[in-house]
Amino acid sequence: MTPEYFESIDNWSPIVDLMIDSPWRASPAHDEGRHEIFTTSGRAPYGAISHLRHGFNARLRLTFEHEDLDSVTTLFVLPDGDGNGVFFVLCNPVHTNLIYITDDGSDVRPNYDETNCGVDLEKETITIGLIGTNKVVQVTRSAIIIMNQEYEDIAMPRQLTKALPPDVVMSAAAMDRDSGLLVAAISKDNGNYVQLEQILADDTPTKIVSKGEAQILSSEATCVVMHRLHGSLYVFVGTTAGTLQLFHVNDEGLVPVLEHPIAIKEREVSATALSAGLAVVCESIAIIRIPPESASAAPEYALLCGLRNGCLYAVQVEFDPNESTEGQHHGNIAAKATS
């Protein structure tokens, strides 16, 4: 059912019941004003129950046209160091565009190049984000670039570039701002690997240090996500072989935890998608926490995978913190398909 958005509701019959509910998902600091109303009302041929909610009204502030917007594949948004505006990083298959817009929308600056910007605009950006207090990290297929967040004469001036060897290509990457860790999926020597990097943003000068040995992937990575499960940092990798690989991050680097094959029933996808291998390739990963039934119950998580053929594949991740294996990962983890 598609939600309707309105400021008032027409009622064609007497209201015989009304209930106000405070949803469990609202945090205590934001309970006020987030109540939901359920009421019986004559909005359908035979009466109906209306579920009423309210929130912020979004209003269009600025419309901006750019000639390269039709080929954008990914968008990242970064605040400037002064808090006066935001940078929009527009990723294309062969290059990157940078646009700065002030908070009030009064100033738009699209004309950036290597003379006034530290971002590598000649390469495709795999990911870009903040590390530490004021460092911006850009990852391309051939380099890791560290920049300052401050915006002066040069937007995000470059501090450090770690170029990959000519025979190494990066296919996916993810980072964790609090720990300063970056995980990169690379292809080299006819093999595929995932490598953990530590960005020492607060050191002078800034450094990038590899942590541990590169771990083998079953095939080329299509997406990488770093996420904390029950206080520990994990890396999820989707591959072109139709598998999900999970690694735990410890002080020594990456530790393999499990490899889960994506199994799709033939009736759920077309024969063309199956024959082309599209059905099992994971292009994106999102992780949501499932509320436990009791305080003593082990936490569970749902791993949602966006597949290349347009389907959504769900995996339930069971985590038992009481079964800890020293030197491997904090807790026992198992994965099972739910769709």
Précis, in short:
By secondary structure, the chain is an all-beta fold.
Q: What are the key terms here?
A:
mainly beta; 4-stranded antiparallel β-sheet; 339 residues
What this model shows, in words?
The protein has 339 residues and is mostly beta strands. Among the domains are: 1-59, no CATH class; 62-163, no CATH class. 2% of the residues lie in helices and 48% in strands. It has one helix and 23 strands. The strands form six sheets. A four-stranded antiparallel beta sheet has the order 4-5-6-7, with no helix packed on it. Strands 8-9-10-11 form a four-stranded antiparallel beta sheet, with no helix packed on it. The protein starts with 17 loop residues before the first strand and ends with a strand.
Number of helices: 1
How do the strands line up in the largest sheet? 4-5-6-7
Reported for the largest beta sheet, the result is: 4 strands, antiparallel
Helix and strand content put the structural class at mainly beta
Helix content: under 10%
Rg from Cα: 24 Å
- Ranges with pLDDT <50 over ≥5 residues? 24-31, 323-333
Compute the separation of the termini in Å.
22 Å
Order of helices and strands: EEEEEEEEEEEEEEEEEEEHEEEE
Output mean pLDDT: 78
Number of strands: 23
- DSSP strand content: over 45%
Sum up the overall morphology in one term.
globular
